[in-house]
Amino acid sequence: MQDPEYVKEAFAGIADRYVVTNHVLSLGIDILWRRRVAKMVHKMSPSRILDVATGSGDMALEMERVCTGAEITGTDFCAPMLEQANRRGLKNTVLADALNLPFEDGEFCALTVCFGLRNMQDWEKALREMGRVLKPGGELVILDFSLPRIKLMRGIYRLYLHTLLPAIAGMITGRREAYRYLGSSIESFPSGMEMCDLIESVGFFKIRQRPLFPGVATIYSAIR
After folding, report:
1. Which domains does the chain have, with CATH numbers?
2. Helix/strand number for the chain, H first, E second
3. Which residue in 103, 109, 129, 209 could disulfide with 46, CB within 3.0 to 4.6 Å?
């Protein structure tokens, strides 16, 4: 669980360099991960999609490209990040906390949250709120960081996560402390079956996990 005020301030401070920093740190692999999520959502043929914790709009914009004809809304609680999303062309944005979404029950056919659930104050409450705004039969797709399952890979990844990554990100953004937070948030975030169990506990079913490259991120999908 995270401190919302700290998270909001941290993201506000890196908003103008957030996109380029992500691409540099992941060597562009984060783009491929979002494309995979967008293709998954496209297969559902949803008419209305909500992207929670949209940030600078990367996921929502990718879905606009792939899910033509769908109405896509991006929501985030950090105004500077939403401003970046608007500048990049995302039209429908709503400033709101993911734990209290300003939408009616069952408004959306699909809901995505990419690298955002980990930063929320209460993961269970956030998932319940996402379920509330989804239609019965609607699909939830979560993309977030995880720790590799292979012990050797986990050690290498942790070395990168806690030393090299903050140093590089600090040079780009001038906010090294924000990326020190990234490492600690990944360490404490549930992943694998622990995350699947959490998703199931709030009323979702048909839960699947898809580890990515090689377990540093995972896609979870579930039906409302």
Report:
1. 4-223 (3.40.50.150)
2. 10, 7
3. 109
